[in-house]
Design brief:
The chain is α+β, with helices and mostly antiparallel strands. It has 3 helices and 2 strands. The termini are far apart.
Amino acid sequence: MAKLYSKKALATTTMLPKKETIQFILNYSKALTIMKIGNKNYKIIAN
């Protein structure tokens, strides 16, 4: 069991997002509007 967790190759792998994922998150954040009315926050996505 100890040998499975001590491999250095598993710890050094880097994960990079796809361009489509980054574009989706940017477009979502541009369309998202948060309105505060009284004590409540309303999240509106303008498509």
